[in-house]
Amino acid sequence: MAVKFQDPSQRLEEIYSRVEEVVRAFAGAGRSLYLVGGSVRDAILGRHTALPSTSDDEQPQQADFDFTTDALPDEVERIVAPQAKAIWLVGKRFGTVSALVAGITLEITTHRGDTYREESRKPEVVMGTSLEEDLLRRDFRINAMAVDFTAGPPFSIIDPFAGMSDLADRLIRTPGAPEVSFSDDPLRMMRAARFAAQLGFAIDPAVLEAMRSMAKRLEIVSRERIRDELDKIMLSPRPSIGLRVLVDTGLADEVLPELPALALEQDPIHRHKDVLEHTYSVVDKTSPNLELRLAALFHDVGKPATRRYDPSGVSFHNHDVVGAKMTKRRMRELRYPASTVNTVARLVYLHLRFHTYQAGWTDKAVRRYVVEAGPLLDPLNELTLADCTTRNQKKVRILEDRMAELKERIVELREREEFEAIRPELDGTEVMEILGIPPSPEVGLAMKFLLQLRLDEGLIGREQATQRLLEFWAKHRAGAGSEGDTGPVVS
Fold it and tell me: β-pairing, 33-36 with 146-148?
């Protein structure tokens, strides 16, 4: 189905009204200023959101607009400074000056093309001399359109490489030869997958072939840039589209090898669904929260390493434990923040917990589940439901009913207990006084028993907790041997 274009005039005039003073400053200096890239594409597609407030009291929001100019970076800085609330020069050596103007961020880049040296992870900047040269060096035709703001409204789209046609055809192509574009910046291969997922567009066969032949070129791109592009794929409306492109072109082998490794049949005899297709479905079913979707992506990565066959079929025992460790390794390699790594790995580790409670949700079972999940309770429940990709509607209803039962039990217990602060009824100091022991690993053993008691039986009162502790300790000492020999301490 061809794309229906929106009239971009209103959006372009809205942006222009915010930056008009900057535009006039460029024109007064004899320089041009062109709006380029995704903001032009999105104005045509009607995919834009409201511009953020211009209030000086508010932090700048994520509303960035790309511009290109024939002015060199030093001149850009001088021209924009009087109108800018803030200027960032971290990209200046790459030809980009960033400025906060009227509540939006402008990324103003001198006409250029990025080229990677074979051994480099950083783009080598080559300054261009014309708008057409600049557009030729952009990633895709749908992003190689511009609007001359210095000419003022009414605006017309500058489209030397048929970007409008590609938008109409829902197609992703490069302005020039794809091999040249991907040599300039290999990350563009991942961007192709990202735009396919974000826009629902097809990728031109010649572009796909270049991606397959040049996939290993991605190894020179920094892990941080790869991670950021992966995040955009994961937060797109249909992440599976982009993930499938990564796998089919071999790009995933370079950045996420655990994903193509999932292309195995769970049961080669009865040909049950393969884990890769299942993973695509689970990711698409989750809401667009990055940590949740990454957990959906990684939740079964431990299956290939744990697959075993027996007369009853195939099993993947402990794939949750193995998968959590694999998740941490891959996410650390991709330079994710430690907090994100730990959250995602924890969700992978816990994603089967719901299914261990087959006999109904007793108080003991609910306490255990909630304490283990902690603040991840809601995303864990969502992941559990998304993990059910069967077409058997009876099985789906059973799972949904059990989840509803769990949520009811949580509400009931929350009314009686301080659910989110479950801890032993005695603290460490009291344990040492009651048992007559000094600070030692034995205190930790006693606290572990008390926590287990709290989870199993709820609030039983300090007097009863003390009695149960003494009984436990007597058995522990008896099993440890003679007095003074505590034996091994279980961690």
Answer: antiparallel
Q: Is 360 helix (H, G, I), strand (E, B) or coil?
A: coil
Q: Return the closest-CA partner of residue 164 out of 326, 40, 81.
A: 40
Torsion of CA 115, 117, 120, 125, to 10 degrees: -30
CB 323 within 8 A of CB 300: yes
Burial class (CB in 10 A: 0-12, 13-18, 19+), 340: middle
How far is the C-alpha of 320 from the C-alpha of 302, rounded, in Å?
6
Measuring CA to CA, how many Å separate 39 from each of 35, 36, 67, 477?
8, 7, 10, 72
Q: Tokens for 414?
A: 């929350």
pLDDT in tens, 258-274: 999 998 755 454 444 58
- Please give the backbone phi and psi of residue 49, each rounded to the nearest 5 degrees, phi first: -115, 170
Q: Residue holding tokens 């002015």?
A: 71
Q: How many angstroms from the chain centroid is the CA of residue 19?
A: 32
Confidence of residue 180 (pLDDT cuts 50, 70, 90): very high
Phi, psi of 108 (to 5 degrees): -105, 115
Residue with the bigger pLDDT between 257 and 389: it is 257
pLDDT mean across residues, the chain: 87
Instruction: Name the 3-class secondary structure at 171.
Output: strand
CATH level 3 topology of 1-169: Beta Polymerase; domain 2 (3.30.460)
Torsion, CA 151, CA 141, CA 242, CA 270, rounded to 10: 150
What band does 424 get if pLDDT is binned at 50, 70 and 90?
confident
The Cα–Cα gap between 333 and 340 comes to 13
> Could you give the percent of the chain with pLDDT greater than 90?
58
Please give the distance of CA 351 from its chain centroid, rounded to a whole number.
18
In 311-415, which ranges are E strands? 313-315
Rounded Cα–Cα distance for residues 458 and 452 (Å): 10
* 3-class secondary structure per residue, 44-68: HHCCCCCCCCCCCCCCCCCCEEEEE
First and final C-alpha spacing in the chain = 61
DSSP string covering 62-122, please? Answer: S-EEEEEESS-HHHHHHHHGGG-SEEE-TTGGGTEEEEEETTEEEEEEESEEEE--TT-SS
Block residue for tokens 């025992």:
317
